[in-house]
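FIELD: query
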Amino acid sequence: MRRLKLAILISGRGSNMEALLHAAEDPSYPAVPVLIASNRPDAKGLETAAAAGIATAAVDHKAYGKDREAFERALDAELAAADTEIIALAGFMRVLTPWFVGKWEGRLVNIHPSLLPKYKGLHTHQRAIEAGDAEGGCSVHWVSAGVDEGDVIAQARVPIVPGDSEDDLAARVLVEEHKLYPRALAMACENILRAAG
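FIELD: result
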């Protein structure tokens, strides 16, 4: 079975990255990690990836000032050098430009801590609690030009308990993220492989 070459983009400790790396240890998983890249050279996840023997790249967005596309072109060069076929965003805290999204459309997925289409953007757990929702959760979706607007691949739901703080809910959702992302990424890879015939 062919496995897609996977790049994971992170900005921090990379707990979702670790869940994906763990899933990919199974030779039947449809993706094989070839690169972990970050916009922050001090991202803890880069150390984790290097310790696992996976190539890493740090492209510091600050070096490019306000020129987001120049940063993305430098990042894209790293992705191309690794022969990347699919990208998973795992806590990558940059809004991508239409140029990058257009180039990788149909091969770019993200995990978001809400039940999309609810609560795009930031502070998702607080917003769900304040709205009186009975549940929160997470979504894995294809990335499109609009922030958190791409088609949903899969979701996981978590009850909101009376007295929940934003941190309480975030911690419970994160447990589900680590289960959901490997499963949803596998579905995305299988879609791409099927389409390629």
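FIELD: remark
The two ends are 12 Å apart (CA to CA).
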